[in-house]
């Protein structure tokens, strides 16, 4: 299922863009958002395959505002979004050449929008699939040895004092001076969830959840993970 993020402050335009995306791909998950802060949150907790961004999100500031551009520049700093298509909506024609080179913009659409043109551009751009964690590996140096860990094979990770124990389908590696927070950032995948303080689990390896006793049972493993009481509600939402 493709995921599309629309960042546009004007509701009528936002609704029209959402309608276009649904016409192109009726199964797409659409994040229709009006502020950059909400867009950042959506992009970090999901893997977006297409961004449709308005350059000016604060019309009162007129030409001084480039919120959409700033959002795109920041998104390009996230490894999985290096090449994800970005379609800009803009009336600032002079900005085009700069953003084509610095942000690798897919296309510009001048306002007021011609939604037939938008449909054709979205139809082409949505074919792209953002790289997902299953094809990546992490590399850690431990006691002079470099370990390669395929992200798709990680079952869970637990912090122990100043070290992090990473358990995979094939082996386990203890990485010194690594935290769960740092690992989550490196994983950059919505499949990995914090289930308790100091423990991350790959939801693809979750076999059963005992919500009452707060236990997580894993596929192919005998150990049981604890589900933290504070994280319980947010964790369970990913399995509904």
Quick tags:
single chain; 240 residues; five-stranded antiparallel beta sheet; 15 strands; elongated
Task: Describe the protein in words.
The protein has 240 residues and is an alpha/beta fold. The protein has helices at residues 11-24, 36-45, 67-75, 96-102, 115-125, 180-187, 232-237, and strands spanning 3-7, 29-33, 50-54, 86-90, 107-110, 137-142, 145-150, 154-160, 163-168, 172-176, 192-196, 199-202, 206-210, 215-218, 224-226. The chain is built from seven helices and 15 strands. The longest helix is centred in the first third of the chain and has 14 residues, at 11-24.
Oligomeric state of the chains in view = single chain
Mean pLDDT: 85
Question: DSSP strand (E) fraction?
Answer: 25-35%
Cα shape: elongated
Helix and strand pattern:
EHEHEHEHEHEEEEEHEEEEEH
Question: What topology, given as strand order, has the largest sheet?
Answer: 2-1-3-4-5
Tally of alpha and pi helices: 7
- Poorly predicted tracts of residues: none
State the end-to-end CA separation: 17 Å
Helicity, in percent?
25-40%
Summarize the structure.
The chain starts with a strand and ends with a helix.
